[in-house]
Design goal:
This protein is an alpha/beta fold. It has nine helices and ten strands. The structure holds adenosine-5'-triphosphate (ATP). The site of adenosine-5'-triphosphate (ATP) has 13 residues, from strand 1, strand 2 and helix 2. It comes from Neobacillus mesonae.
Protein backbone atom coordinates (compact mmCIF):
# COMPACT_ATOMS: atom_id res chain seq x y z
CA UNK A 1 0.00 0.00 0.00
CA UNK A 2 1.28 3.44 -0.89
CA UNK A 3 1.00 5.66 2.15
CA UNK A 4 0.39 9.43 2.15
CA UNK A 5 3.68 9.70 4.02
CA UNK A 6 5.56 7.99 1.15
CA UNK A 7 3.96 10.21 -1.48
CA UNK A 8 4.87 13.34 0.56
CA UNK A 9 8.49 12.19 1.03
CA UNK A 10 8.85 11.46 -2.67
CA UNK A 11 7.44 14.87 -3.57
CA UNK A 12 9.94 16.56 -1.25
CA UNK A 13 12.83 14.60 -2.73
CA UNK A 14 11.96 15.46 -6.33
CA UNK A 15 11.15 19.16 -5.95
CA UNK A 16 13.27 22.13 -6.92
CA UNK A 17 15.79 22.63 -9.70
CA UNK A 18 16.76 19.91 -12.16
CA UNK A 19 18.33 17.18 -10.08
CA UNK A 20 21.57 15.49 -11.01
CA UNK A 21 19.93 12.08 -10.65
CA UNK A 22 16.24 11.38 -10.70
CA UNK A 23 14.51 8.07 -10.16
CA UNK A 24 11.07 8.59 -11.62
CA UNK A 25 8.22 6.21 -10.88
CA UNK A 26 10.52 3.22 -11.25
CA UNK A 27 9.04 -0.25 -11.00
CA UNK A 28 10.86 -3.56 -11.00
CA UNK A 29 9.30 -6.99 -11.12
CA UNK A 30 11.62 -9.99 -10.98
CA UNK A 31 10.25 -13.09 -12.65
CA UNK A 32 11.57 -16.39 -11.36
CA UNK A 33 10.47 -20.04 -11.68
CA UNK A 34 8.67 -19.64 -8.35
CA UNK A 35 6.71 -16.58 -9.49
CA UNK A 36 7.05 -12.83 -9.46
CA UNK A 37 8.61 -10.47 -6.93
CA UNK A 38 7.74 -6.79 -7.08
CA UNK A 39 10.89 -5.18 -5.72
CA UNK A 40 9.97 -1.60 -6.59
CA UNK A 41 6.68 0.07 -7.46
CA UNK A 42 6.54 3.66 -8.70
CA UNK A 43 9.60 4.55 -6.65
CA UNK A 44 10.63 8.19 -7.02
CA UNK A 45 13.37 10.33 -5.55
CA UNK A 46 16.15 12.59 -6.67
CA UNK A 47 19.64 13.65 -5.72
CA UNK A 48 20.94 17.18 -6.33
CA UNK A 49 24.30 18.04 -7.82
CA UNK A 50 27.07 17.55 -5.25
CA UNK A 51 24.67 16.08 -2.70
CA UNK A 52 25.55 13.07 -0.56
CA UNK A 53 22.45 10.94 -0.05
CA UNK A 54 22.40 7.71 1.92
CA UNK A 55 19.60 5.16 1.66
CA UNK A 56 18.44 3.11 4.62
CA UNK A 57 15.68 0.56 4.57
CA UNK A 58 14.60 -2.84 5.80
CA UNK A 59 16.32 -5.87 4.34
CA UNK A 60 14.95 -6.81 0.93
CA UNK A 61 13.11 -3.50 0.35
CA UNK A 62 14.84 -2.93 -2.99
CA UNK A 63 17.83 -0.72 -2.13
CA UNK A 64 20.34 -2.63 -4.27
CA UNK A 65 17.79 -2.98 -7.05
CA UNK A 66 17.18 0.77 -7.27
CA UNK A 67 20.92 1.44 -7.21
CA UNK A 68 21.58 -1.12 -9.93
CA UNK A 69 18.81 0.42 -12.02
CA UNK A 70 20.36 3.88 -11.48
CA UNK A 71 23.69 2.41 -12.63
CA UNK A 72 22.07 0.86 -15.70
CA UNK A 73 23.09 -2.63 -14.60
CA UNK A 74 19.47 -3.69 -14.21
CA UNK A 75 16.58 -2.68 -16.43
CA UNK A 76 13.52 -1.11 -14.83
CA UNK A 77 10.17 -2.73 -15.64
CA UNK A 78 8.63 0.73 -15.71
CA UNK A 79 9.62 4.33 -15.06
CA UNK A 80 12.77 6.23 -15.86
CA UNK A 81 16.23 7.17 -14.65
CA UNK A 82 17.18 10.76 -15.55
CA UNK A 83 20.56 12.42 -15.34
CA UNK A 84 20.53 16.19 -15.62
CA UNK A 85 16.89 15.85 -16.66
CA UNK A 86 17.61 13.45 -19.54
CA UNK A 87 16.51 9.83 -19.54
CA UNK A 88 19.34 7.29 -19.65
CA UNK A 89 19.35 3.57 -20.32
CA UNK A 90 22.16 1.14 -19.66
CA UNK A 91 25.45 1.90 -17.93
CA UNK A 92 27.54 4.95 -18.84
CA UNK A 93 30.76 6.73 -17.87
CA UNK A 94 28.65 9.37 -16.12
CA UNK A 95 28.05 6.86 -13.30
CA UNK A 96 30.67 5.03 -11.22
CA UNK A 97 29.90 2.10 -8.93
CA UNK A 98 31.56 0.78 -5.79
CA UNK A 99 30.26 -2.52 -4.42
CA UNK A 100 30.66 -4.34 -1.12
CA UNK A 101 32.75 -7.09 -2.66
CA UNK A 102 36.15 -6.05 -3.87
CA UNK A 103 35.99 -5.74 -7.60
CA UNK A 104 39.61 -4.92 -8.35
CA UNK A 105 41.39 -6.71 -11.17
CA UNK A 106 43.71 -9.13 -9.34
CA UNK A 107 46.24 -9.19 -12.17
CA UNK A 108 46.72 -5.42 -12.15
CA UNK A 109 48.70 -3.34 -9.63
CA UNK A 110 47.05 -0.68 -7.47
CA UNK A 111 48.11 2.03 -9.89
CA UNK A 112 46.93 0.06 -12.94
CA UNK A 113 43.60 -0.60 -11.24
CA UNK A 114 43.08 3.10 -10.48
CA UNK A 115 43.87 4.17 -14.04
CA UNK A 116 42.30 1.23 -15.89
CA UNK A 117 39.33 3.24 -17.18
CA UNK A 118 41.59 6.09 -18.27
CA UNK A 119 43.77 3.68 -20.25
CA UNK A 120 40.66 2.38 -22.03
CA UNK A 121 39.81 5.98 -22.93
CA UNK A 122 43.29 6.43 -24.43
CA UNK A 123 44.56 8.89 -21.79
CA UNK A 124 48.37 9.09 -22.19
CA UNK A 125 50.65 7.41 -19.63
CA UNK A 126 52.00 10.68 -18.16
CA UNK A 127 48.53 11.97 -17.44
CA UNK A 128 47.51 8.60 -16.00
CA UNK A 129 50.53 8.69 -13.68
CA UNK A 130 49.54 12.16 -12.54
CA UNK A 131 45.95 11.09 -11.82
CA UNK A 132 47.15 7.95 -10.01
CA UNK A 133 49.48 10.01 -7.78
CA UNK A 134 46.66 12.38 -6.91
CA UNK A 135 44.22 9.64 -5.89
CA UNK A 136 46.85 7.54 -4.11
CA UNK A 137 47.55 10.56 -1.95
CA UNK A 138 43.86 11.27 -1.43
CA UNK A 139 43.18 7.73 -0.18
CA UNK A 140 46.41 7.56 1.82
CA UNK A 141 48.03 4.76 -0.16
CA UNK A 142 51.18 6.45 -1.43
CA UNK A 143 53.90 3.82 -1.70
CA UNK A 144 51.43 1.04 -2.55
CA UNK A 145 51.12 1.74 -6.27
CA UNK A 146 53.03 -1.38 -7.30
CA UNK A 147 51.20 -3.72 -4.92
CA UNK A 148 48.68 -6.25 -6.22
CA UNK A 149 45.20 -6.52 -4.64
CA UNK A 150 46.13 -9.82 -2.95
CA UNK A 151 48.78 -7.93 -0.96
CA UNK A 152 46.22 -5.45 0.45
CA UNK A 153 43.82 -5.53 3.40
CA UNK A 154 40.06 -5.25 2.81
CA UNK A 155 40.04 -1.56 3.74
CA UNK A 156 42.93 -0.83 1.41
CA UNK A 157 41.19 -2.63 -1.45
CA UNK A 158 38.05 -0.55 -0.93
CA UNK A 159 40.13 2.62 -0.93
CA UNK A 160 41.54 1.58 -4.30
CA UNK A 161 38.02 0.82 -5.56
CA UNK A 162 36.89 4.32 -4.53
CA UNK A 163 39.96 5.89 -6.14
CA UNK A 164 39.33 3.93 -9.34
CA UNK A 165 35.70 5.07 -9.45
CA UNK A 166 36.69 8.73 -8.86
CA UNK A 167 39.58 8.65 -11.35
CA UNK A 168 37.09 7.99 -14.14
CA UNK A 169 35.46 11.33 -13.27
CA UNK A 170 31.87 10.13 -13.14
CA UNK A 171 29.16 12.70 -12.46
CA UNK A 172 27.57 10.39 -9.94
CA UNK A 173 29.03 7.81 -7.60
CA UNK A 174 26.72 4.90 -6.71
CA UNK A 175 27.86 2.92 -3.69
CA UNK A 176 26.27 -0.32 -2.50
CA UNK A 177 27.32 -1.11 1.08
CA UNK A 178 30.95 -0.42 0.18
CA UNK A 179 32.14 -0.82 3.78
CA UNK A 180 29.80 -3.67 4.70
CA UNK A 181 32.54 -6.30 4.74
CA UNK A 182 34.97 -4.29 6.86
CA UNK A 183 35.57 -4.47 10.61
CA UNK A 184 34.15 -1.58 12.68
CA UNK A 185 37.48 0.20 13.13
CA UNK A 186 38.39 0.10 9.44
CA UNK A 187 34.86 1.10 8.54
CA UNK A 188 35.15 4.24 10.68
CA UNK A 189 38.40 5.18 8.98
CA UNK A 190 36.91 4.53 5.55
CA UNK A 191 33.98 6.82 6.28
CA UNK A 192 36.42 9.65 6.96
CA UNK A 193 38.47 8.81 3.85
CA UNK A 194 35.30 8.91 1.75
CA UNK A 195 34.12 12.22 3.23
CA UNK A 196 37.51 13.75 2.49
CA UNK A 197 37.38 12.47 -1.10
CA UNK A 198 33.81 13.75 -1.49
CA UNK A 199 34.63 17.17 -0.04
CA UNK A 200 37.45 17.47 -2.55
CA UNK A 201 35.63 16.08 -5.59
CA UNK A 202 32.10 17.33 -4.77
CA UNK A 203 30.61 14.38 -6.62
CA UNK A 204 26.96 13.51 -6.35
CA UNK A 205 26.80 10.36 -4.22
CA UNK A 206 24.04 7.82 -3.63
CA UNK A 207 25.16 5.40 -0.92
CA UNK A 208 23.34 2.35 0.44
CA UNK A 209 24.00 1.17 3.95
CA UNK A 210 22.45 -0.88 6.76
CA UNK A 211 24.38 1.12 9.32
CA UNK A 212 22.36 3.97 10.81
CA UNK A 213 25.40 5.78 12.25
CA UNK A 214 27.21 5.55 8.93
CA UNK A 215 24.18 6.94 7.11
CA UNK A 216 24.05 9.99 9.41
CA UNK A 217 27.77 10.64 9.53
CA UNK A 218 28.10 10.75 5.74
CA UNK A 219 24.90 12.28 4.47
CA UNK A 220 23.35 15.58 3.59
CA UNK A 221 20.07 13.64 3.60
CA UNK A 222 19.13 10.12 4.62
CA UNK A 223 16.35 8.58 2.52
CA UNK A 224 14.46 5.93 4.44
CA UNK A 225 12.69 3.35 2.31
CA UNK A 226 9.52 1.46 3.11
CA UNK A 227 9.31 -2.33 3.26
CA UNK A 228 9.15 -4.00 -0.17
CA UNK A 229 8.08 -2.77 -2.66
CA UNK A 230 10.45 -0.05 -1.53
CA UNK A 231 9.40 3.55 -1.86
CA UNK A 232 10.74 6.62 -0.18
CA UNK A 233 9.19 6.76 3.29
CA UNK A 234 10.96 9.82 4.63
CA UNK A 235 13.71 12.20 3.67
CA UNK A 236 15.69 13.16 6.77
CA UNK A 237 18.01 16.15 6.19
CA UNK A 238 21.15 15.85 8.31
CA UNK A 239 21.93 19.32 9.57
CA UNK A 240 25.22 18.44 11.30
CA UNK A 241 27.97 20.91 10.42
CA UNK A 242 30.62 20.11 7.84
CA UNK A 243 33.42 19.25 7.66
CA UNK A 244 32.64 16.41 10.06
CA UNK A 245 34.96 14.30 12.09
CA UNK A 246 34.38 11.43 14.43
CA UNK A 247 33.64 13.55 17.48
CA UNK A 248 30.24 14.39 15.95
CA UNK A 249 29.09 10.82 16.65
CA UNK A 250 29.07 11.63 20.37
CA UNK A 251 26.87 14.72 20.03
CA UNK A 252 23.29 15.09 21.25
CA UNK A 253 22.15 16.10 17.76
CA UNK A 254 23.65 12.92 16.30
CA UNK A 255 21.86 10.81 18.92
CA UNK A 256 18.57 12.49 18.00
CA UNK A 257 18.99 11.64 14.32
CA UNK A 258 19.88 8.10 15.31
CA UNK A 259 16.74 7.70 17.43
CA UNK A 260 14.54 9.07 14.66
CA UNK A 261 16.05 6.80 11.99
CA UNK A 262 16.06 3.70 14.16
CA UNK A 263 12.39 4.11 14.89
CA UNK A 264 11.55 4.65 11.19
CA UNK A 265 13.52 1.55 10.21
CA UNK A 266 12.02 -0.50 13.00
CA UNK A 267 8.51 0.41 11.88
CA UNK A 268 9.25 -0.74 8.32
CA UNK A 269 11.21 -3.83 9.34
CA UNK A 270 8.26 -5.01 11.44
CA UNK A 271 6.00 -4.59 8.40
CA UNK A 272 8.45 -6.67 6.37
CA UNK A 273 8.28 -9.53 8.88
CA UNK A 274 4.49 -9.58 9.32
N1 LIG B 1 17.85 -11.13 -9.60
C1 LIG B 1 16.79 -11.28 -8.81
N2 LIG B 1 15.87 -12.23 -9.08
C2 LIG B 1 14.77 -12.37 -8.32
N3 LIG B 1 14.50 -11.61 -7.25
C3 LIG B 1 15.38 -10.65 -6.94
C4 LIG B 1 16.58 -10.43 -7.69
N4 LIG B 1 17.27 -9.40 -7.13
C5 LIG B 1 16.54 -9.00 -6.08
N5 LIG B 1 15.42 -9.74 -5.95
C6 LIG B 1 14.37 -9.57 -4.94
O1 LIG B 1 13.97 -8.21 -4.94
C7 LIG B 1 13.77 -7.74 -3.62
C8 LIG B 1 14.67 -6.54 -3.38
O2 LIG B 1 16.03 -6.99 -3.36
P1 LIG B 1 17.25 -6.02 -3.09
O3 LIG B 1 18.50 -6.84 -3.11
O4 LIG B 1 17.16 -4.87 -3.99
O5 LIG B 1 16.93 -5.53 -1.62
P2 LIG B 1 17.86 -4.79 -0.55
O6 LIG B 1 17.00 -3.78 0.09
O7 LIG B 1 19.10 -4.31 -1.21
O8 LIG B 1 18.17 -5.99 0.43
P3 LIG B 1 19.30 -6.13 1.54
O9 LIG B 1 19.15 -4.97 2.45
O10 LIG B 1 18.96 -7.40 2.24
O11 LIG B 1 20.62 -6.16 0.85
C9 LIG B 1 14.04 -8.92 -2.70
O12 LIG B 1 12.81 -9.52 -2.38
C10 LIG B 1 14.89 -9.84 -3.55
O13 LIG B 1 14.70 -11.18 -3.17
Amino acid sequence: MVTKEAVKAEKEATEGKTPKLEIKEVGKVFKTKKGETTALEKTSFSVSEGEFVTILGPSGCGKSTVLRIAAGLEEATSGQVLIDGKPVSGPGPDRGMVFQSYTLYPWLTVKENITFGLKLKGVPQRERDHVARHYLQLIGLEGFEKHYPVQLSGGMKQRVAIARALANEPKILLMDEPFGALDAQTRNIMQEVLLKAWEESKKTILFITHDVEESIFLADSVYVMTARPGRLKKKVPITLERPRDFSVKGSVEFAQFKDELLSLIREESLKAIH
